[in-house]
Amino acid sequence: MPDAHFLLRGLSIILIDLLLAGDNALVIAMAVRALPRHERLLGVTCGAVMAVLLRVALTAVAARLLTLPYVQMAGGLLVLWIAFKVLADASDPPEAVPAPHRFWQAIWFIVLADLTMSTDNILAIAGASGGHVGLIVFGLCVSIPFVVFSSNLLADLMDRYPALIYLGAAILGKVAGDMMWQDPVLARYLHPSDLARYFADALLIAAILVGGRRIGASRRKQPG
Length: 224
Hints:
globular
């Protein structure tokens, strides 16, 4: 029954999107949190659509992308920067940030972070599709509404409960650390033990939380 088999592959892809879109939604929510509320949905949608279009183009070379040196390291550093920057801006309500360039900056962050964090999603969808191009495109496009809804929900929750910003930054610190440890260069030369990785992740999280909070506090002390 080829039709039933095709349907089963499609359902598998939807499940993969649900399971693997969480960290992407979090980093997007952190990136757009500095935007006014009326710009968030547009920013998330534009960034997600652009990222998915690039994912479709990169699916054929996803396995190769994972092995390139410094790709995951650069992605991890970008995620760290987003977490640090959001914490530094956490003392300002989103509506108080008037700079229009923040909109395009947020989209740029979304596209870069999504591409570097989504290789597992791309490979899983490519495998579940059995090489069917239509299913690959379907799976990558289905991820858009999941990410858009989750990102907006998380950004709104961060406005209502500011402590979630620190929790999100800590989670992104762990995600960034994992990405950098998986980079071929670090894996080849360092061969870190699990204990060393946990310790390094803890240091990254502490650096983000302490550094971001101090910069935010120093901004509040500055006049006007």
